[in-house]
Write a structure and sequence with these properties.
Number of strands: 0
Strand content: under 5%
Largest sheet: none
Number of domains: 1
Distance between the termini: 24 Å
Helix content: over 70%
Order of helices and strands: HHHHHHHHHHHH
Oligomer: single chain
């Protein structure tokens, strides 16, 4: 446990002194704020138009604007994670080789599991820190809404974002451990994510037995459950299983690297 904490603290310190991390965080917050403002304005305008049309026919339709904005925001953040994950993970192991600290890690008494989990937890924590400011305007919207929507939508949505981010970070961690070049690691991670997105499109257009399997393997289908405020046990098991699988593969890759350097 001490080794894991030491790696975690080292990685968190590296993130908070890295200009790239601040650039990624700033761009992420700016883009999500613009999207939130735009989504809220568009949906409010649609609600007003629907209300005016409903008054003409004597029936005013009900529109859950906060819920619709929240789901649109989470869907957008989930899409952004596809582009952010390669940038967050591309230097996890190649950067150690560049700084010459990989040899120290491989010859230290630290376990491979401590190294892998420390780096993964630090990157996931940094993602959570990036997401924290986005909750401010979501909470402000909730408090200003009447009637106020259930807080379950907000909590499950962020849980889904963290689980999806955990899967992508674990995948990027594994691919990062396979190469010594950050650009190659980022490209490999982005290609792997594109394959996952392609599986999602194939699953949505198929009704056969294979299509059902692809639907279950689609990371976005499980993510949609969380954005609707639904915590499905199968979705939790699916995400946690993928995270565990990729972390196990990363541990094996790091273990092989230690044997090669021995």
């Amino acid at each position: 446990m001490r080794g894991l904490i030491a790696i975690y603290r080292k990685e968190m310190g590296h993130y908070f002194v890295s200009p790239i991390a601040y650039m990624v965080s700033g761009a992420f917050l700016l883009i999500t704020a613009i999207h939130f403002n735009r989504a809220l304005a568009v949906l409010m305008e649609r609600a007003l138009q629907a209300g005016m049309q409903g008054m003409q026919y004597g029936r005013i339709p009900e529109m859950d604007v906060p819920g619709m904005v929240l789901r649109a925001s989470f869907d957008f953040v989930g899409t952004l994670l596809f582009f952010m994950a390669p940038m967050l993970t591309m230097g996890m192991y190649p950067d150690e080789r560049k700084r010459g600290t990989m040899e120290l890690l491989m010859t230290s008494p630290l376990r491979e599991l401590d190294i892998v989990l420390g780096k993964f937890c630090a990157t996931l924590s940094f993602l959570a820190v990036m997401l924290l400011p986005t909750a401010l305007y979501q909470v402000a919207m909730f408090l200003a809404s009447e009637p106020r929507p259930p807080w379950r939508l907000l909590l499950t949505g962020y849980l889904g974002v963290l689980l999806l981010g955990g899967v992508l970070i674990a995948l990027g961690s594994f691919l990062s451990s396979l190469t010594e070049n950050q650009i190659i690691a980022a490209v490999l991670t982005f290609i792997a994510i594109l394959i996952l997105v392609l599986l999602n499109f194939l699953a949505s257009g198929s009704s056969s037995g294979l299509g059902e399997v692809l639907q279950y393997c689609s990371i976005m289908r499980h993510f949609d459950d969380f954005t609707r405020g639904v915590i499905d046990t199968s979705s939790l098991v699916f995400y946690l299983s993928l995270i565990g699988l990729f972390l196990l593969l990363t541990q094996r890759s790091v273990d092989a690297l230690r044997w090669r350097r021995a």
